[in-house]
Structure to design on (174 residues):
């Protein structure tokens, strides 16, 4: 598991626009936010990513670039983008299970069809949210074993002003 103030392992994913996104190539003003969702099969991910989509412009204004990724196939990721109306987020597919584990994420085995009638993949990463500083060190992480609880995005957005104004350091490094 990566601790705050430690280098986040580099990884690459394919964006839905056909380009490749690599963590070490990012140069945000303040943070790169990486949001890992379970996949198209997850109705709670739909709700959460719609909340994120609504604040995407505000995050950008605060110097935060956002990547949303999963271990889904490109086809499933495109369905999520289209069906869920995620028009303001950089969505990618193909987060390798090894990279998910390198980030400290939990991995689940598919158990069949979900409540929305979509089959779970054989293996997929459980949710996580990472705030990564421009030097690629971890500032904040929230890692889940289940789809039910996620960080409150409105609180995160509100606290960014304090974090940036006060130069609040990453915590949990000891």
């Amino acid at each position: 598991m990566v601790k705050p103030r430690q280098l986040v392992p580099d990884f690459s994913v394919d964006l839905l626009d056909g380009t490749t996104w690599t963590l070490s190539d990012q140069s945000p003003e303040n943070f790169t936010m990486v949001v890992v969702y379970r996949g198209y099969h997850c109705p709670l991910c739909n709700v959460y990513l719609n909340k994120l989509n609504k604040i995407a412009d505000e995050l950008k204004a605060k110097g935060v670039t956002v990547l949303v990724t999963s271990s889904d196939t490109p086809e499933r990721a495109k369905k999520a983008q289209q069906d869920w109306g995620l028009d303001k987020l950089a969505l990618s597919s193909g987060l390798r299970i090894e990279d998910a584990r390198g980030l400290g994420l939990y991995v689940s085995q598919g158990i069949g069809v979900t409540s929305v009638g979509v089959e779970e993949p054989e293996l997929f990463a459980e949710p996580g949210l990472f705030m990564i500083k421009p030097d690629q060190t971890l500032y904040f992480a929230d890692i889940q074993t289940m789809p039910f609880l996620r960080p409150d995005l409105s609180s995160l957005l509100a606290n960014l002003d304090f974090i940036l104004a006060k130069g609040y350091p990453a915590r949990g490094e000891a």
